[in-house]
UniProtKB/TrEMBL annotation:
Source domain of life: Bacteria
UniProt protein name: Uncharacterized protein
Residues covered by region (Disordered): 1-61
Biased composition (Polar residues): 7-21, 29-43
Length: 175
């Protein structure tokens, strides 16, 4: 069969070619079928040491939330939930003729209150001259403050300052 090899420790490449799997990393086979050896420094082929593969996750959101107070985190969670409730839509529900379970409490009123609070907060933000989209980029979409600063072509620290002011505004008026 194509790609089978009786040697122990061998793997099949994308074109049925085998590469040896020794103590070093496997070599990669390019689209042209040529073999490119893996670097010994742990980086991807064609990358210099220190460039890496670009898959490093930023620790900025975790650091940002550790600097916030409990009420600021609560405000951030309510803003995120209000945004999601406002933008998700109603969706579809399958029809079932069996008995539907009853809910405990009035969640519809709570959702409505969150959406109203979000819309009023966004209007107050615009009145105050703060950027709603910059705050939402950080809170809802998980962008870093540096990425928001760069995307808006603002000075360093604009996004964090805007976020802290927006959380303070939500705390004072809607919590």
């Amino acid at each position: 069969m194509k790609g089978e090899n009786s040697k122990a420790g061998s793997k099949t490449g994308s074109k049925g070619q085998t590469t040896s799997a020794g103590p070093r990393k496997l070599a990669t086979i390019s689209k042209q079928g040529t073999r490119q050896p893996a670097n010994n420094n742990g980086t991807a082929p064609g990358k210099a040491k220190g460039q890496g593969t670009g898959k490093r996750r930023s620790a900025a959101p975790e650091r940002l939330f550790t600097q916030m107070s409990a009420s600021q985190i609560r405000a951030a969670e309510r803003i995120m939930l209000g945004f999601r409730l406002r933008t998700v839509g109603l969706g579809f529900r399958t029809q079932s003729f069996s008995r539907m379970p009853t809910s405990s409490g009035n969640s519809g009123a709570w959702h409505l209150e969150l959406m109203r609070g979000f819309v009023q907060w966004a209007a107050r933000m615009q009145e105050q001259g703060l950027s709603v989209t910059a705050a939402l980029d950080i809170l809802v979409f998980g962008k870093s403050c540096r990425a928001v600063d760069k995307a808006r072509r603002k000075r360093n620290g604009f996004a964090k300052e805007n976020l802290m002011k927006s959380l303070y505004l939500f705390e004072c008026e809607f919590l």
